[in-house]
Amino acid sequence: MKPILFLLSLFIASIFSASADEKFNPEFYAFFNGMPTGTPEEEAQLLKDLGYHGINQIYDGEKLAERVAAFNKHGLKALSVYLAATEKPVEAKLVNPIANGGMIELTVKTITPEIITSIRKTTEMAATKNIKVALYPHHGNAVATMPQALDLIKKVNHPNLGVMFNLCHYLKNEQAADLERILEKARPHLFSVSTSGADLDGTDWGSLIQTLDKGTFPQERLLTALKKMNYKGPVTLQCYALKGDKGTNLKTAITAWKTLIKNLP
Predict the structure, then answer these.
(1) How many domains does the chain have?
(2) For residue 218, what are the domain limits?
(3) Would you list the DSSP string of 31-97?
(4) pLDDT tens digits for the chain (265 residues)?
(5) Residue 53 in domain
(6) Where are the beta strands (DSSP E) in the chain?
(7) Is residue 6 assigned to a domain?
């Protein structure tokens, strides 16, 4: 083999080797509903000390700017706000603090032509501020499943509208066996993912939202599917109605998360 071809083959091999060895390690955020009572500064300090990348699904709009500033100060991110779609589009002033990289997690309780127009206008506004809009499938809503979210995305027809996969709501409303197929179908629109410890046969939130080290659902299955998809978005920790000390729950979750990532094939 000529020297130049030999060097080229080594270069190509090194590229594929680096790609194969690249560790799947998405940014990991904690839901606002899992935070102990405290100031935004105390929240940011706690999550930084534990090793999270920040906080998501903030619904305390009055302190949004303060919280964003506190997290930025600690090198973390206030990733997203949690809002419900109505016939009135989301106002820019409500989400200005998360411009340039934030996200709106949007629930949809009912679907009407007016709601679809409102979501389109919200999405257009958010795009001008570099804020993504992710539909949040929620049990009991008109958008409760991933297929329902994907159908609405098609109707709105705007590239800045995507979907957030939520394990607890998925297991509540859909079939666990379809997980990989559903994720692959959602792949072009998958903006965010949330998880928690959960039981495969869980029916209530107590069994579907547990600390990340518990539950019969194999977290490796979800993470492996995301890795195979080359998913680059955030993974977030659902904490709704978790029993026990919130600080301890967050510590337990980050320990379990680091172990899962470390052992992922």
Answers:
(1) 1
(2) 82-263
(3) EGGGPPS--HHHHHHHHHHHT--EEE-B--GGGHHHHHHHHHHTT-EE-EEEEE--SSPPPHHHHGG
(4) 454 444 444 444 444 443 445 789 999 999 999 999 999 999 999 999 999 999 999 998 899 999 999 999 999 999 999 999 999 999 999 999 999 999 999 999 999 999 999 999 999 999 999 999 999 999 999 999 999 999 999 999 999 999 999 999 999 999 999 999 999 999 999 999 999 999 999 999 999 999 999 999 999 999 999 999 999 999 999 999 999 999 999 999 999 999 999 999 9
(5) no
(6) 28-31, 54-56, 77-78, 80-84, 103-107, 132-135, 161-166, 190-195, 235-237
(7) no
Burial class of residue 106 in the structure, from the number of CB atoms within 10 Å of its CB (0-12 exposed, 13-18 middle, 19+ buried)? buried
**Residue 255 resides in a domain:** yes
User: Counting Cβ atoms within 10 Å, is residue 136 exposed (0-12), middle (13-18) or buried (19+)?
Assistant: buried
The Cα–Cα gap between 20 and 18 comes to: 5
Domain harbouring 145, CATH code: 3.20.20.150
pTM of the model: 0.91
In a domain, 4, yes or no: no
Distance (Å, whole) CA 170 – CA 148: 12
H or E stretch at 4: helix 3-21
In order of 4, 75, 224, 236, the CA distances from 18 in angstroms are 21, 28, 19, 27
The one-letter code for the residue type at 97 is P
